[in-house]
Amino acid sequence: MVGRGVEPKRRRGRGFSTLELMLVICIMGMMAGIALTKIDLAKMEANSAVQVLSTSMVAAQREAITKQHDLILTFDAAQLTVRMVWDANSNGAIDLGERVRAIPLDGRIGFGLGGAAARGFGANPINFDRNIGGRPALIFHRNGSASGIGGFYLTSSRALADSTYMSDTRAVEIVRATGRTEWYRYTGTAWKRGF
To answer: Which whole-number Å values give the CA distances from 3 to 6, 7, 8, 11, 121, in the listed order?
Structure first.
């Protein structure tokens, strides 16, 4: 019997035992292992590269409109780099003193079809009708239009080595009149717009 003024003993809450904690950690580790096998990093890297270059191209187009001078993009497949040149005098050439920004690609991504079927703009890894300094080039004019139609393909290094990974291939296409950039992914049988 409990006397007056004396509170009954409260039962303290029990924590987790070491065994229970280890069991939970093991289960979480197994679930993470299963989930990681489902993630395809090569496709994610290809998507990321397309987003970086496409976003840079959209920014270049807007910069050309805002600054009211042309902006040149040159594509270097060997160095896996795209160069943006602010063509201050809009002469279509890269002159000394003009601002240049390089956009490098990750070494696990390259320009190429990787076994995918070609789109309408051609089968070369980079398809633009202009060359500047011996490299394919695209110019965004001050009205926002592009110098020509064309595009390029990006894919994983594994798809460049083995065409069974052709679904890693992505395409970026330019619409000449508007300068709009469109993205496509190869499903293994057909091109689909977006990701």
So the answer is: 6, 8, 9, 18, 92
Closest CA to 130 of 118, 138, 119, 121: 138
pLDDT in tens, 126-180: 999 899 989 999 999 999 999 988 999 999 999 999 999 999 999 999 987 788 8
Q: What are phi and psi of 170, to 5 degrees?
A: -125, 155
**150/190 Cα distance (integer angstroms):** 19
**Across-strand partners of 2?**
none
**Sign of the alpha-carbon dihedral angle for 97, 99, 104, 110:** negative
If phi over 0 gives left and psi between -120 and 50 gives alpha, with beta otherwise, what is residue 127? Answer: beta
* Contact residues for 87 (Cβ-Cβ < 8 A; gap 6+): 69, 70, 71, 72, 93, 94, 95, 98, 139
Angle at 50 between CA 47 and CA 55, to 5 degrees: 125
* pTM (2 d.p.): 0.78
CA dist 76 and 70 (Å) reads 20
Judge contact between 172 and 49, C-beta under 8 A. no
